[in-house]
Amino acid sequence: MSGRKWKLNQEEGEKVKEYLLQQGGEEKEVKNASERWRIKFSDSTFTFYTSGTLYSTPSNSQDPAVEEVWDYIDSLVGSVFVQPTREFLIGLDETGKGELVGHTHLVGVIIPSHLFSQLEKIVSTADIQRKHTPLSIGIIFSDKFPNLSATV
Description:
The chain is of the alpha+beta class. It folds into two domains: 4-77, 2-Layer Sandwich (TATA-Binding Protein); 88-144, no CATH class. Helices cover 21% and strands 28% of the residues. The protein is built from three helices and seven strands; from the N terminus they run E-H-E-E-E-E-H-E-E-H. It has helices at 10-22, 64-77, 119-123, and strands at 4-7, 26-28, 35-41, 44-49, 53-56, 88-96, 104-112. Residues 126-130 have low confidence and may be disordered.
């Protein structure tokens, strides 16, 4: 599970703070002038900044209570993503330099739209500025999705 980030106005920030405290969160001392408040809840720390950014550290224990707070915040401010209008979402990306200096790889993914609201929790958003640990790669076979067909 990775951390989460939202953009809130001051009123929304206060609602989240009140909610966290009602749920048993413990207010901590802010560490610098850019922080409005900091609350420890379960094994996650929620920090609200003067810029309006709210950040929650990852829950290493994957505590469902932390995910419930994230769901509450999502319901308060909405998703950063536009809701899909199609049954499936399809994404493609390529990597590599081509034949002269190496192979080019094209990767595709198809996601049922009912998983859309869980997408950020499942994969989080890309942070290309830091090093990542290797991910496991899997193939989804078409027999798992009988409504899909592909032609090459």
